[in-house]
Each structure stands twice: as C-alpha cells, then as structure tokens.
Amino acid sequence: MYGRGCFDQLDEIISPHRVGNQPMIFLVDHFFKNKSLIDRVPVRGLDKIVFADVTHEPKTSQVDAITKELKDEFGLISGIVGIGGGSTMDLAKAISLIMTNPGPSSDYQGWDLVKFPGIYKVGIPTLSGTGAEVSRTCVLTGPTKKLGMNSDFTPFDQIILDPELTANAPVNQRFYTGMDCYIHCIESLTGTYLNEFSKSYGEKALQLCRKVFVEKNKWDSECDDLLMMASYAGGMSIAYSQVGVAHAVSYGLSYLLGTKHGIGNCIVFDKLEEFYPEGVAEFKYMVEKNNIEIPQHITKGLTDQQFDTMINVSLGMKPLWENAVGKDWEKKITREKLRALYERL
Amino acid sequence: MYGRGCFDQLDEIISPHRVGNQPMIFLVDHFFKNKSLIDRVPVRGLDKIVFADVTHEPKTSQVDAITKELKDEFGLISGIVGIGGGSTMDLAKAISLIMTNPGPSSDYQGWDLVKFPGIYKVGIPTLSGTGAEVSRTCVLTGPTKKLGMNSDFTPFDQIILDPELTANAPVNQRFYTGMDCYIHCIESLTGTYLNEFSKSYGEKALQLCRKVFVEKNKWDSECDDLLMMASYAGGMSIAYSQVGVAHAVSYGLSYLLGTKHGIGNCIVFDKLEEFYPEGVAEFKYMVEKNNIEIPQHITKGLTDQQFDTMINVSLGMKPLWENAVGKDWEKKITREKLRALYERL
User: Fold this and answer.
1) pTM of this prediction?
2) Whether the complex's predicted ipTM surpasses the cut of 0.90
3) Which of B27, B67, B122, B284 could be stapled to B98 by a disulfide with Cβ–Cβ 3.0 to 4.6 Å?
4) Do A197 and B229 touch (CB under 8 A)?
5) Which residues contact B28 (CB under 8 A, 6 or more apart)?
6) Residues of A with CB under 8 A from a CB of B
7) Spatial distance between the Cα atoms of A203 and A200, rounded to a whole number of angstroms
8) Maximum CA extent, chain A
9) Which residues of A touch B228 (CB under 8 A)?
10) B203 vs B194: CA distance, rounded Å
11) What is the phi/psi pair of residue B195, to 5°?
C-alpha cells in the first residue's frame, strides 16, 4: 500500500490477522518515543508497543532477547508491525522468523537456512533508502559475522508506504539513507549480475534519487514521495542483482566499529573513484549540493589486528566482489589493496 | 519470478501447493495446441491441460462452463495455472474465484463483490502488454456489461515471467498488445488520478515501450525482455491510477463487435489526437516504423441502435472518463460527440 496518510489504515489492515486474544506487537524505532506518531498506533487488547533501540546496527543477540521477552510474556502473538528505519525493519523481520524457528538467530545467518514461515509481519518505513521494506534479508551482526537471514520467508507480508512518515527525518540521516539506495543502484547496474527486472527497477530508483538530490533545490513533500518510491524500487532491484565494493568494504567498518550502514556506505563510496568513476563524481556533487559532511579519517589509529578483522569481513562477501570485479576478483582485490583503501577512510 | 528459462521451475514452484490427489489444472491458450511448450508443462497424477479458446474476449458464460466442467470431473482441484495472453490470464483468475464463490461469475462483475479467496492460481504470460499478469481485475463480457471482477482476491498468487515464452508471438498481435501497455500509460500519466507509485511504474513502462517500438530497429530477444517488464510495470502502475478515453471507447467496440482489447485500443487511440496529441503522434510513428496496419472503417454500416449500444457501454465507464476529462466530464462528453468519434473508427 502506498499513499500519503495511508498509515491510518493500519488498524483495518491488521485486523483480519489478529488471532484470538494474541496481541499484535508494534516494534517502533526509539526515535518516535514521545512523538505524536505513537498516538496513531492502533493498540487494542493485549497489544504492546516495544521501542527498538537502533543506536547501533541490529544484533542477533538483540533479536533473541526481544523474542524471548515476547514469548515469556505472551506465549504466542498475532503478528509484529515494524515502524522505523532499516534497522527496525530488519529487527521486525528477524523477530517474526525467530518466533517460529527454534534456536538462536545466528543459526540462520546465511542463505535459505530458515525452515518455517515466521508470524505475520508488517513493515512501515519512516526513513527511505535502504529498501529493507521489500528485501529478502534482514542484516544482523552476530557473534562471528555480519550477515542477513536471506530466505523466502524473510519478506514482510504487508508493507505500508506512507511518505508523510518520512517528513521529519533528520537531514543528515535522510541523506545517508537515501545514498544507500543511490549507491546500491550504481553497484548493481554496473555489476555482472543483472537481468531486465533488476535493471528496470534499478534505473528507476536511480532516476528518482537524482530528482531528489540533484535536481531539487529544496526539500518538499514531493521529495518524500519520490525517495520512498526510490527506496522501494531499489529494494526490488536487488531481487536479481547484487551490490558491490562499497557494501563489501562498509560491512567491515560496521562489524568492527559499529558504523551504521548508510553513513558507512557514504564513507566508503566517497573513495571508490577507481571502481565507480561517474557514480563517485555525482555522489560528491550531491554531498556538496546538499551541504552534507562525510566523516573522514575514521580508521586513523586502528591496530594491524583491527585492519585485519575488517579485511577478513570484507573478503568474506564473495558474491559482492564477484559482482563488482568479475570471477577473478581474488587476483585483483589483495589484502594490501584493501588495507590501503581502509586506511584512506 | 522473472528470467529467461524460468518456466522450467514451474514444477518445483507449484509442488508445495498440491493438495492430496487434487489435480493442478493448466489452462493454456489454444495457440499452443501441438506446440512444443505443451511438452514442458509439468503434468502429474490427475493434472489436466485445458485449452482455452480465446478467439473472442473472455465471457462470463465461458468462465462458468469451464468451472462447472472442472467441478463435475474433479470436485476439488489444487490450483489453476494460466499460460497465455491477457485473455487466458483473465480466464484463469476468474475460474480460480468461481471455484470458491457461489453463483455465476456475472454476479461479481464490479468492485469488491468477490467474497472468498479463490483457489491457488499462477499466471504465466506468453504475450506482453496487457498487464493482466499483475492486475486486480479479470475483464469479462457478461450478459449486460463488459466489466472485470475487481477484488483483492483477483491477483495471482504467483507469476512467472519468462521472456523466452513471448519469442514466437505473431508480429501484429505483439504490437497490438504492446500498444495496450503504451496506451494505458499515456492515459494514466496524463490523467487526474495518480500518485508517485503509479507514476514511477507508468514512466518506466512507457520508457520500455519506447525502447522496443521507437528505438529498436529489429526485434530481438532483448525486446522480449523489455516488453515483458513494460507489461509488468504498466500493470503495477494501474494500482493507483486509471485508464482513459481509449479504453472507455474501445470497451464499446468489444461489447458490440467482439473486437479484442489490444487491437480495439489501437483502433480508437489512432483517432484521439484531441485528447492525447503527443501520445497519438508517437503512436502513429510507431505504427509506421513497425509496419503495422490499424484497421479502419470498422463501424461503417452499423445501425443507430448499434451506435447507441456502444455509446451506452462507453458512458458507463465513469471513472475512466473522470480520470481523462475531469469531474465535469458529462458536460464535455456528449452522446453526439461520442457518436461522431465512433463513426470515425
């Protein structure tokens, strides 16, 4: 469902999915604590609003803890509604799956490891760009890796795209998250994995990002409309394509330093002129035009061991490197080359 | 699912939806009788291939007859897989619904009249353009009207988009059906009902149509890829938009003369320079470039009563007229004006 104000149809939409007395859980980004959006959440009966602390990237331990609390308190629940940015989307998807799949969530980090459908889950993004509202994964940092639970059971049963909800996002955050969309489009459209489905969606998402960050001179409600569609189309484009160097390198930053995904991608992409010359030039133009600062020197003073950790995480993202550089990527992307790149960040 | 050759995954896709001994029904466009595609249909157990006679536009009586035959022969069935053009898609959707909703299908021509979900249904288009593979309707000619069963239960549970299946479509047919997509994009993008969701999809579909019919000089496999995505995107764009004058007028032709939807839209759009000056100019260019003939004088010799019938059907399409001409459309679209337009066709 897409449209301004359609959040108000949430009560009607989830109503047929309520099972007896079992509550509906609203997992809401803690950014909205004490904000007026909370009064519009259709809480009924045993329903509960749980605030998600998304200061850091979602962790498997966080998924397991929230799921345990819900099981202890309610036994069974009717469903979970995630309201927030990409981290909240991913947490909601993961909790839905761990409600019905036994064991810790880290067991399912990978591809097609999830065995059973999760409970009914709804995604309502309040920040546009990650595409987490439509993706087949939920990225989690676990004890040994940062990797999503990629499965046919991972996508939401319902998404509600109401551009009004993104109107008051912090300016920097909005830019970083919007750039996540831009960057993954550049990565997928220039990559070696692609078909016309993903190409069509990727081109559209890129065009919408450009309208917002290149053509527009002032943020207005149309920007919210456009960027929400960009995020959706960008997420759809991932179905048959793959991201590339910026994602592979920024996963290392996130794993070691907890750098959030959007800003991490910006920090890395800013230095990738070798791989994506036109994209990086346009990115720099958008950064300047939108008066945004990209953090510099964030790896200064790290130890050799810490650089090694990041390099290991990054080199583990094989499909991303193959997509970006080709089948013989291992010859081209040496540890030394990656170390030099990380030192520039 | 989208991809060259993905038709071969049909067996695997439908397998979890088989219920006990109940057969899967493959409703296949009669165009494929004795063609090699039939050997690739994964028939198992009691499964049956039913050829759909789509010489004329689908009728409610045809839906009721096929449904009755299936009920008489099998009682219950696991699901229905439609393989063909827009007519076959619409028949498959309608049969799925009438398997579980009592009474003749004409009872459900309208908006949100369907009460129960249909049986499991899969759409596999072999001709691109109508968007019937994703739409929320299935257009049927009934005893009193030509109107779809528009409902949340109407869309397919699964669609399989394999551009290889469209490779051998007859050239004229392919053009007319492709133009159905082009025309409904022009109608929706210039209309008064629209939001960014439908606009994004409509713009993309239009761009893909132009690549195929304006930019390309020869039909190749890329054209099949592009037009299949155009059809899908065009169908998605209808979610929050509406078609316009060409559809409203061509429904009258179909109702009276049985003119098929794609060619009917072309016959009408060819004369709509008053409403869509740029679109009609580009359409005429594509007709010429692709060496297609648009039938002329098809209403010659009709009686006053026959013209009145077409005018009545057309004026009944209120949302289409309102979208195209505005809320005061009834003042502008008089019976005389419509009569003059029908006489030019």
Assistant:
1) 0.94
2) yes
3) B67
4) yes
5) B37, B38, B41, B49, B50, B51, B52, B83, B84, B88
6) 2-4, 161, 163, 195-197, 200, 203-204, 208, 222, 225-226, 228-229, 232-233, 239-240
7) 5
8) 60
9) 196
10) 12
11) -135, 180
